[in-house]
């Protein structure tokens, strides 16, 4: 059951594949813009600010070519997650020597009391990112469906 | 061996749960029993019981922030690391826990 709800929780509109960017700044901007277009956030600028605040606290590259930046901000209207599969690996400070080819960006509201259910899904989702099978599949994802299928692993 | 512990990171959204998954997988791989409580934005989940703590051979805290209920582990062997360490090298971490427990006995 949990598996099914995790699929429902992923929004196809915030999954981007074959993204051609060269820097961390670019990918964060592209995702922030997507969040804005899809009604997740009110302000691109504020949200990006929150993401960089978190970046200062420690590396968000979790190794194995995956980065999980996140922004917690008042500008977030809907908690969510965006997944970008890049067309090539870019530089990103990480726990190993890899950069980022997969970028998973969480957007979280400051006041998330009413969104417990959703936050719970986020935690289930975060755990999945700790699984090598999921990451191996994600790294090869060519389509939005591939990305969603990765989390069925 | 029985391992229990807590994971908690600064934002309480991602690293907490990643660390939990990594430690659990690494411990199970070598045949350990393991349970990791998470203290994140949604609050405490997978809460450790008194018995579980009592029966544990070692306590692992993968934490970047102050956690609640640390006094529960009084008198137990406690190892504290960052969530980054747990995520980066879970296998090594579990190996280390084994070494510590073996040395004690």
UniProtKB/TrEMBL annotation, chain A:
GO terms for cellular component: membrane. Keywords: Phosphoprotein, Phosphotransferase system, Sugar transport, Transferase, Transport. Pfam families: PTS_EIIA_2 (PF00359). The keyword Cell cycle does not apply. Residues 8-153 form the PTS EIIA type-2 domain. PROSITE patterns: PTS_EIIA_TYPE_2 (PS51094), PTS_EIIA_TYPE_2_HIS (PS00372). GO terms for biological process: phosphoenolpyruvate-dependent sugar phosphotransferase system. PANTHER family: PTS SYSTEM FRUCTOSE-LIKE EIIA COMPONENT-RELATED (PTHR47738). This is PTS system fructose-specific IIA component.
């Amino acid at each position: 059951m949990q598996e099914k709800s995790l699929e429902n929780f992923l929004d196809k509109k915030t999954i981007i594949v074959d993204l051609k960017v060269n820097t961390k700044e670019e990918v964060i901007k592209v995702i922030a813009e997507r969040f804005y277009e899809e009604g997740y956030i009110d302000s691109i600028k504020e949200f990006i600010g929150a993401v960089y605040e978190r970046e200062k606290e420690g590396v968000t590259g979790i190794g194995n070519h995956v980065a999980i930046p996140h922004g917690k901000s008042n500008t977030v209207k809907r908690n969510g997650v965006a997944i970008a599969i890049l067309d090539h690996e870019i530089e990103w400070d990480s726990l190993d020597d890899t950069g980022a080819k997969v970028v998973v960006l969480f957007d979280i509201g400051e006041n998330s009391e009413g969104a417990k259910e959703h936050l719970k899904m986020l935690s289930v989702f975060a755990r999945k990112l700790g699984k090598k099978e999921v990451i191996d599949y994600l790294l090869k994802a060519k389509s939005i469906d591939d990305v969603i299928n990765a989390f069925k692993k | 061996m029985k391992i229990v512990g807590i994971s908690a990171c600064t934002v309480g959204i991602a690293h907490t749960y990643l660390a939990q998954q990594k430690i659990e997988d690494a411990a199970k791989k070598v045949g350990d029993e393991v349970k990791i409580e998470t203290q994140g934005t949604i609050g405490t989940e997978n809460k450790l019981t008194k018995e579980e703590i009592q029966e544990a051979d070692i306590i692992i805290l993968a934490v970047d922030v102050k956690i609640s209920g640390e006094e529960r582990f009084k008198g137990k062997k406690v190892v504290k690391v960052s969530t980054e360490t747990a995520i980066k090298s879970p296998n090594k971490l579990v190996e280390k826990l084994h070494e510590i427990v073996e040395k004690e006995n």
